[in-house]
Amino acid sequence: MLLLMIIPVIPALYCSNYYKCLVVRADEEVFKSVENDAEEITEDLKKKKMKKDKIGFRDRKIIEYENRMRAYSTPDKIFRYFATIKLSHGENHEVYMTPVDFLRAITPGMKQPDGLGLDQYKRYDPKTVQQKLDLILDEDSIFYKLGSSGLITFSDYIFLLTVLSTSRRHFEIAFRMFDLNGDGDVDCEEFEKVATLIRHQTSIGSRHRDHANTGNTFKGVNSALTTYFFGPTLKEKLTIEKFLDFQEKLQKEILSLEFQRKTPDHNVKITETDFTELLLAYAGYPQKKKMRMLKRVKKTFRDSEGISKEDYLNFFHFLNNINDVDTALTFYHIAGASIDQTTLKHVAKTVAHVDLSDHVIHVVFTIFDENHDGQLSNKEFIAVMKNRLLRGLEKPKDTGFIKFMYTVWKCAKETKPALLEI
């Protein structure tokens, strides 16, 4: 009797398990289908992004023109071209740059937005400009030290370029020159002399001529900045440490703006290709060589690990000591030691006191290791990194024609005509 009761249950249990298996399999198939669809959508988005990122003929020509302007035009014209804000005070008006405008003015290949250009600006009322402009700056941003709601005047522009294009060592020497009592500090008047001396030594300062008709005349360091350096009564002294701290904060803020530009959706990391583009921005390489380097990086890092902001800033802290790094790498080279990834990491640690991540070092070697032998061409690497540190601003900004004409004139002056020798 018991056996007869069990027999009908067995097929029922079997069927129940069978249907459960069918449901599970169906769920797995649906999941796989959804997963495949998601992958296809991701691939389509990547392709669309690549198409979108591709620069057209018109944009390419505009970028080439803007790069020539950055390289050879006067600071006045560069400021008027890349500034985007005009504030009107009744009949008077003044032109300003935003921090992003400033970054665009010093970054090759970064195109000015359509509809804005030479003497073309967005007009704002000074009373409402702070509310209408979203500058995305931290409360303690160095740009707020300039006053003007974080905006940059022409005089600020010249001063900031001078600060960025001058090495820490040169500022230290200039401060010592004008430190008459030897206490290591300078007062407001002495600082004006330091700033003037440094400015005239830079390519920016040597090219600048005041243009009263455009309103772009250099008026010295602005009052908000002098108050920051010397206090409300301008009686405090400015130490070289405080000024170098200002320079470091400015560099860090510009680097942060660059990083944000590559991650508009606020990702935590940038890609290795983005890092390479930022590193080679001021290298002055022919387009073919640059594309070859980018292709090598893309191929090596297909499964992108990414580079965090901390690693990015650490690498540029390492660049601040590039002259000492150059000396250290030269010693290695003279001693016959190879400059591999371990060596570079050791030099960064001992000379610059910074821990570079293995991943960043791997990316750097991928960029500069042309023959894939695992060794760094330190001469090329150092040359590119020095340009990157000073953003190409220390280069002489002329086409070479003026130097050529000067050489011809000098040669003609020193050479006696053949008839006089007879």
Automatic annotation (TrEMBL):
The keyword Iron does not apply. CDD domains: EFh_MICU. One of its GO terms (cellular component) is mitochondrial intermembrane space. Pfam families: EF-hand_5, EF-hand_8. SMART domains: EFh (SM00054). SUPFAM superfamilies: EF-hand. Belongs to the MICU1 family. MICU1 subfamily. This is Calcium uptake protein 1 homolog, mitochondrial isoform X3. The keyword Repeat applies. GO terms for biological process: calcium import into the mitochondrion; mitochondrial calcium ion homeostasis. One of its GO terms (molecular function) is calcium ion binding. InterPro entries: EF-hand-dom_pair, EF_Hand_1_Ca_BS, EF_hand_dom, MICU1/2/3. Residues 1-15 form the signal peptide. It is found in: Mitochondrion inner membrane; Mitochondrion intermembrane space. PROSITE patterns: EF_HAND_1 (PS00018), EF_HAND_2 (PS50222). Residues 166-201, 356-391 form the EF-hand domain. Keywords: Calcium, Calcium transport, Ion transport, Membrane, Metal-binding, Mitochondrion, Mitochondrion inner membrane, Repeat, Signal, Transit peptide, Transport. Its main location: mitochondrion.
